Write the structure tokens for this entry.
Amino acid sequence: MSSTLPKNQVLAVRDLSVRFYTYAGVVHAVSQAYLDVFEGETVALVGETGCGKSVFTKAITGLIDPPGRIETGQALFRKRDGTIVDLIKLSPEEIREIRGNEIAYIFQDPSSSLDPLYTAGDHIAETILEHRPITKDEAYQEAVQLLRDVLIPNPEVRVKNYPHELSGGMRQRVVIATAISNKPRLLIADEPTTNLDVTVQAQILDLLRGLKEKYKMSLLLITHNLGVVAETADRVYVMYGGRIAETADVNTIFEAPMHPYTQLLLRAVPNPLKRIERLESIPGTVPNLIDMKPGCPFAPRCPFAMEICRREDPPRIDLGNGHVVHCWLHAKR
Amino acid sequence: MNPVYRFGSWLIDKYAGLREKISPGWLEKNRSKLVETKLSVYVFTASRIGLTGLALVVITLFLAIFGPFIAWEPYDVYPILNKPELAGKLPHPPCFGDCEGLPMFGTDQYGRDVLSLVVRGFRIALVMSIIIVVTSSLIGIVIGLVSGYFGGLVDEILMRFTDMMLAFPGLILAIAFSLTLRLSLRDFLMANPTATSIVASLFALNPKDAPNLANLLSVFLALILVWWPPYARVVRGSVLSVKEQGFIEAAKALGLSTWKILTRHIFPNIMSPLLVMVTFDFATATLSSAALSFLGLGPQPPVPDLGLIISQAGQYFPERSWWIVIEAGTALLLISLGWNLVGDALRDVFDPKTRRSIELKAKIEVRK
């Protein structure tokens, strides 16, 4: 693969595999995953718990700790100044310069993402000072401005508050303010609304959308909530068992899903307008990723599974218009 | 409200006022930190254990600082050499009224006033324990932080080395170290008069007595060498639990350097168990250094070391030296009891469970 990117593309991940070498065996957390993010778009990464979503994005930002290892892959990223780097090949020091500066990460648990010993302002100023040569006072003034941007009332007071003095939604706003403090080109939000109640979830999503416009960021949203996907995403990647199962723009995914897993996933979303007898679910559980054998990871739960599905990895089938599905059902023979 | 708390709170206010004067705006920025500190002081002073311990620690620290100036007799002049008529009467028991010019609280076998010696002894005991604990905890913190945070091979090597040190009984290893270090320390002090006078002023001893200073140094170097492994283990354990917390991962994701993560996020979060351990260790270190000099490894007469005083009394015990053992023993008891009680109260302050209940009633008074 060449190391160039189309003009409007921010991130291109190809053939990324991450394995964890544990006592129980080798965990194939992510296998041959790929991802494209263009400027100003929101990309959603969807899948059940334990399907490798978080590991995938952490690998991109170099946050995989031993015993995990990135086996293969390439993650081309266009920096602010236009140079293109491969995130996987960068030295720890170089990728540290990018983290929090060009790529920012929001974790799912806002209460544990803040150090209880420091105020909201400390967190934001610390991140600013790490990446930009400005004075402490300027950093704290910027912190107040950022808190205003994430719609925290009374930012001048709140900037001096400790995490325990803030509510859950407020904390998540502080985490977001910290993440956007250096105006990153790419914001990765790992289930940013999971631990919040529904009304606050909606506020946070609105906020993220607004900030994306304001700062001209791209947003990579990791979630298992399909409602969130429908509302915010431009394009969707569905992940299963450490692999990308299907990708398309958001309308195609919801209107014409081709992968059996996507279809079942959509059926499992309750529609409040329809009276239903019982909630649909996908029988079986997420596969054990230890010492995986070739074959489609979804085959054991798939109602359409064929002989070949258990023997060989599914092929990549391009249905046009950016709709790609990895399934033997659609293979032309 | 309790006067000790009022004093503590007054001190904090004065400190805050000073900081505010140096850099305006400091007070506003740190208001909740100040309230938190005052709450901690309140919880500490609300416990009788803490107050008793604090009183003992203040007394022993006072004696450690001013004892050598208060002591009314020089420690290195033996009265028996000037007054041969004392021979046969020593050690002389405490006497009330009919003292024949001898001190009221009894003498040792050289005719020196035991109480005066004990007052000097506080300096040696506390300087020893503080240097031992501070130095070895610093070593332990560095090793524990590095080992816990980086893990893997670094952790394996450092921890196996720590295990090796822990495997020996501490006191016996310290004896071996102190015996091997002694001669080279003596040579070093003989060659460096400045070093000798620094050590001598630290312990408030006569700088001419270099061999004894070398003995003291060898004891505390030996104790430092065997004292750090438990710190390394405790720090490593706390680091392992803190580094799994979300805010460490968040700090990494925000591109903070390893140095900043270690010093700004991990170290402050492991402080409280460490502080409690350090306080308790002041007591243990005092006792251990006294034990070493009791065994004859520390300084030799005439140094007023509490362990040595007790050991010297041994040959006349009990009929002709019980007062020596009681006076020096009480001094050791006061030191270790004080630190232990303070450690206990600190643990209550740092433990959110015990703290919560006292805090509730404190909050209203403190926030005013």
Chain B is about 75% helix and 0% strand. Chain B touches chain A at residues 28-29, 31-32, 151-152, 245-247, 249-257, 260, 264-265, 268-269 (CB under 8 Å).
